[in-house]
């Protein structure tokens, strides 16, 4: 009898142990399933795209645009950080020297520069994207605009040696750089928000990209000056245009990453001198002729200023961009597009 009771007790203990193990395994399974569900629910950007590139978002899409004035003097090349800009405007400053307004939203480089001084038309272009404007210095008219509150801005004139760093491998005024973390720091100090609901640009879908029409283009060249000859050469394997300066591929100084563009928009605009120093006023409102380069094709289009943004139009309708990065070159309306040399491989 005792043996029977003992055997029954042992069977009961084994049953309890098995139930416990089963519950533990089920608990582990449930925990694992919950973790997977949690991973999916935390993937908030599934299906979302960055507003200025149209590419699938890997991070926060509600970051505010940051516009940085970047030096393009031949002594300032190669530059740092601009390969990560979503959009870059290239526009004449004084003489035949251009400067860049690099707009960052989807990617953030460690460092950007050399940073240079502001001009009114760059501030206006920046404001088309409600960007936090970064510059080191200003022209008299740009000073008036920024002092009057035209846009949130951080100027190296007041943060030289703190937020902005002077590098020892270049001489002033080509040696001012700003780490991106210092832009964030400066924005917090000044109470500027780095959150924004950025209005997206219009982008082609995959099928529309395959159907892009236009004349074939292998290379487009703009001659701003003897030391500033810009070319865009189509890279058929990558499906983007490589940017060249004076015949050499543009690249990032630190990483040597090539600078490329999925879209190249070359627009003509009236330029006029406003002082003896050679500063210009540039008409960003009236529209005009333009070339749009995408996927090895060239379209002659027109451009319009839509809420501060320079955008391509054809027959009165907006033309969509190929997903990716965009370079916009603004050139004088005289000689206009005649100053753009278009070549094919057979040329």
TrEMBL record:
Q: Which PROSITE patterns does this one have?
A: PROKAR_LIPOPROTEIN
Q: Name the InterPro entries for this protein.
A: DUF3048_C (IPR035328), DUF3048_N (IPR021416), YerB-like_sf (IPR023158)
In which residue ranges is the amino acid composition biased (Basic and acidic residues)? 26-38
Could you tell me what this protein is called? DUF3048 family protein
Span list, region Disordered: 26-45
Q: Does the keyword Repressor apply?
A: no
Q: Tell me where in this chain the DUF3048 domain is found.
A: 52-193, 221-328
| Taxonomic superkingdom | Bacteria
The reply on keyword Zinc is: no
């Amino acid at each position: 009898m005792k043996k029977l009771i003992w055997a029954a007790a042992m069977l009961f203990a084994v049953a309890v142990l098995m139930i416990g193990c089963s519950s533990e395994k089920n608990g582990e399974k449930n925990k694992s399933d919950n973790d997977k569900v949690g991973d999916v629910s935390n993937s908030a950007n599934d299906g979302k795209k960055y507003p200025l590139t149209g590419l699938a978002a890997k991070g926060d899409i509600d970051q505010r645009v940051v516009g940085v004035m970047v030096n393009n003097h031949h002594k300032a090349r190669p530059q740092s950080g601009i390969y990560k800009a979503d959009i870059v405007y290239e526009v004449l400053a004084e003489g035949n020297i251009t400067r860049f307004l690099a707009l960052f939203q989807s990617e953030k480089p460690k460092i950007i520069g050399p940073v240079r001084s502001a001009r009114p038309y760059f501030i206006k272009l920046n404001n088309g994207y409600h960007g936090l404007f970064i510059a080191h210095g200003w022209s008299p008219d740009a000073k008036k605009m920024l002092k009057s509150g035209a846009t949130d801005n951080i100027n190296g004139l007041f943060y030289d040696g703190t937020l902005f760093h002077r590098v020892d491998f270049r001489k002033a005024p080509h040696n001012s750089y700003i780490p991106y973390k210092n832009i964030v720091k400066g924005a917090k100090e000044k109470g500027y928000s780095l959150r924004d609901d950025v209005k997206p640009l219009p982008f082609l879908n995959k099928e529309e990209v395959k159907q892009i029409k236009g004349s074939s283009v292998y290379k487009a060249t703009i001659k701003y000056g003897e030391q500033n000859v810009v070319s865009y050469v189509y890279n058929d394997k990558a499906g983007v245009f490589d940017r060249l300066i004076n015949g050499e591929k543009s690249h990032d100084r630190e990483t040597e990453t090539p600078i490329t563009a999925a879209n190249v928009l070359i627009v003509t605009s009236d330029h006029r001198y406003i002082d003896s120093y050679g500063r210009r006023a540039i008409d960003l409102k009236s529209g005009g002729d333009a070339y749009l380069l995408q996927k090895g094709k060239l379209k002659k289009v027109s451009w319009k200023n839509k809420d501060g943004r320079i955008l391509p139009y054809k027959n009165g309708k907006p033309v969509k961009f190929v997903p990716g990065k965009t370079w916009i070159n603004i050139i004088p309306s005289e000689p206009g597009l005649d100053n753009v040399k278009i070549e094919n491989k057979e040329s």
